[in-house]
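lol ok so funny story. i was supposed to be doing the assay writeup but got distracted and ended up predicting the structure for this chain instead. priorities right. anyway since i did it might as well share w the group, maybe its usefull for someone
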Amino acid sequence: MQRGAGLVLLLLAACAVVLFDVRQARADQLLLFFTTLAYYALWRIWSHRSSRSLPLGWPLLLWSAVALGILAKGPITPALIALTAFALTLVTREFALWRRLRLGLGVVVGLAAALPWFVAVGLTVGWQKLMLAFLREVVLRSVTPMESHWGPPGLYVLLMPVLFWPGSLALAPALWHAWRRGVRLAPSGADRRRWYKRLGPGRPAELFCLAWLLPGLAVFELIVTKLPHYPLPLFPAVALLTARGLCDRRAWQAVLHRGLGRAALLAWVALTELLAVGLPLLLVALGRTPDGGTPWARVALLLCVVQAGVLGGLLELRRRRFVRGQLLLVGATAAAALTLFGLLLPSYPSLWLSSRLSVLLHRVDPDATRPLAAAGYQEDSLVFLTQGRVRKLKPDEVADWWRTHPDGLLVAAPPPEAPDLHRLAELEGLNLGAGQRVRVALVQRATGSDAAPGVQPPGTAPP
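and the output, tada:
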């Protein structure tokens, strides 16, 4: 897999879910980094067959990365590492791996890193609230759909060509080739009652990546609440296997010589045109924005570059030059991302409701000294942009909050009609988290002088 190391980085950095997620106010990129670091340490530990000569640094690196992964986003990193270790043990029957992991060291490092944070949060917000948050975000999110983000088992498998695009070009042949090389099956009559005894280890690199990918993907498929970025910690394994498949012509023979394989390749070509060219053109078709700020000449030039890269990549694929074709398509993806995220999307203010609210709050309260809360619109992006100032309120908590913070500012959706409240401004836009258009107002307690100089919402001209 060493030949494709650079290709792995390109495929992971250019895939659709990463391009989208890096622009979100979330901790998933930290989770991706620390989980990948933990898997690197696990690979070194698993590859080192002797417990006595194993340097202490590798278990220490593993458990440090696991502890930081817990701080980033809860129990996902240790759960995935445990699933992979169990899978490797199941296939290889090598229980000595668990001695080399030094679980006692893991407990000490985990407690040293995570316990101070949990104690500080518990003392700040209260232990009951911390426990309820844990139950809601970990337990309930696994068994019930939260925020209407429901999906059936198998959804991530169906969406993988889109989530990992453009690297999904070689996904099917790479996985098939990796399974044949990484796992060896005994004859079916060997032991019909214990199916797992038919499994045997093949090539270590492919086996490790499969043990990284498949058990974790099965768990994510069983979790009821589904969002596209949830399986992101598995994508380095997908990138490793895909890059290996791109570099091996034999992995393509079984695909290209079958009608189903050729149909899948044509479907991927159609997906490429849809995402790289069709999506930017769809935004262009929506028309010029009210402020007329879209640089149409640069958009047209970049779309020509995108289409040229797509056509060049497809031509290389036709010539069976799969790595060159994939690299051209990654370049086309970069140009498409620049068009979409750098030129088109910033020209549509309705998509950036939290950013507009942040600008509005700075105009009203430039020193950021007034209490701030939100009811009805509680996106994490608003918390991020206000540097944690905003307090999220339930509808029945608003009245009590006004009594204790009469000089406060409230972001409310829908805009309240109470006579004792004065609307400083109203904004309308798309709530990306909920996937619906909303109207929000910035309000304060009404006073005798609130015939108020109106605060102009961002993106509007004064009368």
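The beta strands are 183-185, 199-201, 372-375, 391-393, 409-412, 421-431, 436-445. The longest strand covers residues 421-431.
back to the writeup now i swear
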